[in-house]
Amino acid sequence: MCGLNGVWVITLLKVLGDKLRKIICLRSLKTRIFLILLIVGLIPCVSMRYAILQSYERRAVNIRTSDITAQLRILANHLLTYHYMQDTSSEVINAELSQLSGLYDGRVMVINSDLRIVKDTYGISENKTIISEEVVRCIKGESDSKYDRDNGYIEMTIPITETVTFSGNAEPEKREIVRGVMLVSASTDSIMATMDTLNRQALIIEVIVMLAILVASVLAAKMLIHPFEKITAALDKAQEGYTDDPISVRDCIETEHIGDAFNRVLGRMKVLDDSRQEFVSNVSHELKTPITSMKVLADSLLAQNDVPIEVYQDFMSDIAGEIEREDKIISDLLSLVKMDRTAADLNIAEVDINVLVELIMRRLRPIAQKRDVELVYESLRPVTAAVDEVKITLVISNLIENAIKYNREHGWVKVTLDADHQFFTVVVADSGIGIPEDSLDQIYERFYRVDKSRSREIGGTGLGLSIAKSAILMHRGSVKVESKVDEGTTFTVKIPLSYIPA
Ligand SMILES: Nc1ncnc2c1ncn2[C@@H]1O[C@H](COP(=O)(O)OP(=O)(O)O)[C@@H](O)[C@H]1O
Ligand SMILES: [Mg+2]
């Protein structure tokens, strides 16, 4: 039975401990605000109580000491008048001594110059000799007082001095002669009692103030945190789906800023989401077009009987052309997806760029010849750079291919390679059809083509420049285009000679 109770108590303590830990979670802003306010409120309260009590104690002890000193000085004169040191039977003095010890709840001892106790109001030590340091010092004329806080008394020594006039010399001389000492120990219980009362009253005030601070800090913490709770709720709501309503908590500047920052992030996410959706729909459309053509061609063949072999061959070569186109779109898409991966996938190596450009141009020369476009290469200096060879090949070949494809008859394409100490530059200039100014911003978009039918005719997918731009950005380079319709286009690509990791 007892064991069962023990288990209950332990479980209860555990639950309470968990709850308390949750409430006093230092990572919570609410707890921090609460604790700061509590400490800021409490420290002055407690220190004030201590300061007041200490100053009271000092002052009370000083007053008590000077009171007793004054009384003792009067008494010392009486002692001398009644020759008390020689004869302690004086009732007047004895009454005065017992009145004094009664008044201060203490003990008075009268000691003569031979250090013999002639009177002790406690009646314990009479006729004994006392050789304490203070008494000996007092015999020499030094009065002393000492406050013993732990034992609750003030001890003081006062010399009993007589002024004697010597008239041996021409001028009479007055001298103070110590005839004895009064040793008094007075209790400070009454001071302590007053202090206890004061302390109790101060404590009550302190508890009331503490409670007020507690309530105020809970309210303040709640009030300060409220806007943040509101913004969390707004974010939770936004997380349930992309709402078009912007997050707005105008309670304070900070939450306003948080809301604005989140609205910017959400806006960007929405743009990304829209562009992803647009990309998917573009891909589907581009992939579907060749398939639709193939189906039309195949259906029209199937619908006819006794089709001549020439027609069959004609249609089949069209179908093969569409398949080739589909293949090109898919391989371009794959290149693009590869570019979307992180820079960690880059295969960086030292590459001779002159050799690379020459190789690309040799590969593209047959296409240029077919269109009667002159291909010129000018290399201003030997260049080697740390790049991903495959990706830089894609960049340069896409640009030169475009320059050949979007050219006029008997046109030219000029490729120039140059470098400084930081970058190498490939400039691809052509004498082609040019790009209208309002299209210049869009040419890097996926599937964007200025003239869709012309691009298709030539075999373009609208992905070449976006692949090129991704590869350039992965190398932390830049691309710039200048163009005039019917005059020509110049693309300038700048790539760092050594790869700069993120
Ligand atoms: N050198 C150029 N001269 C004229 N127009 C160009 C040139 N390069 C690109 N363009 C235009 O930019 C569009 C996008 O190019 P790109 O992404 O390579 O796609 P495409 O597969 O059509 O070549 C092209 O369709 C074309 O209209
Ligand atoms: Mg292209």
Query: Oligomeric state of the chains?
Result: single chain
Q: Briefly note the structural class of the backbone.
A: alpha+beta
CATH superfamily of the largest domain: PAS domain
> What strand order characterises the main sheet?
2-1-5-4-3
CATH class of the largest domain, named Alpha Beta
At CATH's second level, what is the architecture of the largest domain? 2-Layer Sandwich
Distance between the termini: 68 Å
Label this structure with key terms.
502 residues, alpha+beta, Beta-Lactamase, Helix Hairpins, Heat Shock Protein 90, 3 domains, five-stranded antiparallel sheet, five-stranded mixed sheet, 11 helices, binds adenosine-5'-diphosphate, binds magnesium ion
Structure description:
There is one protein chain. The chain is α+β, with helices and mostly antiparallel strands. The chain has three domains: 23-230, 2-Layer Sandwich (Beta-Lactamase); 242-340, Helix Hairpins (Orthogonal Bundle), CATH 1.10.287; 344-496, 2-Layer Sandwich (Heat Shock Protein 90). The chain is 56% helix and 19% strand. β4 and β5 form a beta hairpin. α5 runs parallel beside α6 and α8 packs parallel to α9 (389-405). The longest helix has 53 residues, at 29-81. It is rod-shaped. Bound molecules: adenosine-5'-diphosphate and magnesium ion (MG). Magnesium ion is lined by residues 398, 401-402, 460, 464. The site of magnesium ion has 5 residues, from α9.
How would you sum up this structure in a few lines?
With 502 residues, the protein is an alpha+beta fold. It has eleven helices and twelve strands.
